[in-house]
Each structure stands twice: as C-alpha cells, then as structure tokens.
Amino acid sequence: MASEAPGENETSVTLFLKYKKEFETAILDIPNMKRGGKGENPGRKCGKMQRKYHDFTTPCQSVGRYLIEIKENYESDSFKRCKYLNYKINSDYNYNKDPQWFQGYNEFSSQLGNICENYIKKIEPNIIDKLKGLYRYYENFNEYKGKDKDTSGNICNDIKSLYSFYKNHYEECQKKSNDAFCEELINFKNAYEDKMNKFSPCNDLPKTLPQIEQTSIQILPPTKEDYVFVPILTTSIVLLMSFTIFFLYK
Hints:
- By secondary structure, the chain is mainly α.
- Among the domains are: about 10-110, no CATH class; about 125-200, no CATH class.
- It has helices at about 10-25, 45-50, 55-75, 80-90, 100-110, 125-135, 140-145, 155-170, 180-200, 225-250.
- Helix 2 packs across helix 3 and helix 3 runs antiparallel to helix 4 (about 80-90).
- About 25% of the residues are buried.
- Keywords: Membrane, Transmembrane, Transmembrane helix.
C-alpha cells in the first residue's frame, strides 16, 4: 500500500490544493480502474444504501470513491485528507442536500475500517462561509512567484484581497484558535510568511501578518507530593490556630 508524508515545503495552501486535485481526479474514475481492476468500486456499497438514503447514489459514489482512495493509498497519512473531504462535503450542496447523508457517509466509512469516520460531521454554516472566503484565493496565492513575475497585477490584487480578509478576521480568532476557521487562518499565516520570505511581497503588503494569540490550558493531575502537601498544610494550620487560641486565652 502506497503512503505519502507531507513534503518539507508543503503548507496549508499547497496541501489544500493537492487534496482538491486528488478528489477531483478520483471521482473521474468512479469504477477505480486505474489499478487494473484491483481497486474497489464504491458502487456496490452505495447500491445497498440507496433504500435507506434518498437520492444518495451519486454523492455516495463520489465521496465513497475518495474514501477508498485514502484507504488504498494514503491510510498512514489520512488525517488532513479526511479534513479536506469533510470540508468538501459541507461546502458543496451536491454532497449535503439531505442531512441524513452524513450518516450515510459514516456508514460507508465503517465498511472501510472506519477511515475518516471521526471527521465526517456537520460544520456550522458561518464557519463554512468563512472557510470558503479564505480558500477561494488559494490558487492564485499558490501561483505567486514575486511581484516582478506578476506582470498583469491580477495575482497581487487577489493577495491584497486575501490580506484584507485576514485583517478583518484575525482579531475574532484571538484566544479562539481551536475553532476550525481560526485554525486554518493560523495555518494560512504560516503559509503567507513562508511565501513572502522566498519572494518579494506585492506593493503595500507586509512580509508578516498580525499574530493570532493561541491559548492552551492544561490541567495536570495532582502528583503524590501534592497529596502529601495538603494534609501537612492542613495540620500546620490547625496547630497554628490552636497555639493562637491558647495564647489569647492565657
């Protein structure tokens, strides 16, 4: 089984575009013939589910085909592909017309060793809208090779719009970085700065973006010493109070 680890220079932008292309390529070959007939065809599983989920065959075969692609070729590197697939399902009406379909996708997943099962779930509409707003600029951003190469200025115009988008949203993500959109905005910040360190920025754009403050609160279990400390402290307080009362009434 083939596997692939993210490359050293891959960022959230390049990975998003890579998974997008993988998905689009996979659904052009629903029968999964590229492996000489050895790959699984999603049709049989989807056919059995048709009675349970209305009008489900077409979306089931597309999503199922990519799930099979992940299972057969990228199982050891499935996490981000599963996240992309969940975004695709939530952002494209063709895959989420019926809320029951989410259950259908997870049922399909359960028949593939639960590949992506924990990742296929409903994303709040306001988060999906913001993710769409961010992702729509990714292709031009990925093509950027410095302002000198952008003779038409079209790519820089898009990057300026993307910069404005970031500035308009980064403050809402302060101390809220576990939000799906904020997590991706932080990833984009890293991708932007990586790109601008390699190439000259567009006019009027900075090399770095404003920082998003991340919080991580970890509650540690008490150690053995903690348990020992508490009764010693309590005993000391009781003794101190006893002596105080003794001297007051003496």
